Amino acid sequence: MGVVSHVPVAEATRPSRPPGPPPAPTPPARRRRARRWVVAGVVIAAVAPVAWSYGRALTGPGNDAWSIRSTEWLKDHHFAWAVNDVERWWYTHHQPRKGGTPTGALRRALPATGPAAAPRATPTTAAGPAHLPPPPAITPFVATPLPGEGTWRPLGQPVAGLPAMEVAFLRPDAVHTSLLTAVAWIDPDLVRLAGYAGVLEPGGPWAQQAPIPAFARPALLAAFNSGFKMRDARGGYYAGGRYARPLVAGAATLVITTDGKPELGAWGRDVSMGPDVAWARQNLVLIVDGGAPVAGLESNNAEWGATLGNRVLVWRSGVGITADGALVYAAGNGLSAASLADVLARAGAVRAMELDINSAWVDFFSYTPPTLVQPLGVTKLLPDMHPSTSNYLTASSRDFVAVFRRF
Predict the structure, then answer these.
(1) What is the span of the domain harbouring residue 164?
(2) Does the N-terminal or the C-terminal CB of the chain have fewer CB atoms within 10 Å?
(3) For residue 12, is it within any domain?
């Protein structure tokens, strides 16, 4: 016999009522929710200025990659210690190998044979312009040099039928023999130098500021990096009658005269202010003096690169002046301050200074003039230099030196 339901039919078919609103939160729940909003507001207030500052660094003027901008932003906001630790760890664990010989593009940079420096061509004018004699070959550091190691050959465009620049390649020491250091020799009688400010360093604006203008490029022969950022250079910057920072007595100083010729030495001893000074850039102290490396370069201190110390081998660059007034620029990977000074001294520098270091900042480009059918040609001094060949033709963030033909 079935079970009889006692639920009335009307109640059985009546739809269920929707649930009512949840009960109001108790006072402790309201307080927790309010605290969460306060914390969120504090976090947003703290993060917003940081995000705005970092965003400005990433989108500001200059042609630096985002990784460089991020690193510089960290240094500028009290995280230099973290950057230094990371850089020191990286370079310490990625040092150049010992032994071996250059391979690939580095090996091809050396000529197949080792002739003496190319003889001077006949000038295009009857008398010919004044010019320096060709430099003597650089004595290699290794016992068994490669063919062409340390010998000079013309670099870039000639001027009045003469080589205004020459280049030589050699191993930087007898241990790291798979590396090459390049040395460029520049004749100031055939070229005119000019210092250019970057869009960020040393801060501007300036009459001569990156990029190299299009109207000047047909006479452009070369351009190369300058020194450390001004906050690290321990010196000053002067151009066109005004200072970005005061020039410091005793600091290593590259001077360009109003005639476009270079002078180099300790400020106040070898070079000083006068009406013929058009541009002066300081960076640390001399690494070559009296034709020899200065004492103390082998010590492990922050003098030659605050983030790295001297015993870590990195990309480095430097510039020197010879007894007859030629400018010599040297750069390469796997260099210490001491080995850079050794190279510059062997290249004939009587005084020399370190320029910038690290792969992001070391560069030397030579140029061929633009034509109606071909844009400006750009070649790196060393094939493994990292910066883009467009560096000084766009808004470079850092100051640099440009080399122009005189005739």
Answers:
(1) 102-114+130-405
(2) N
(3) no
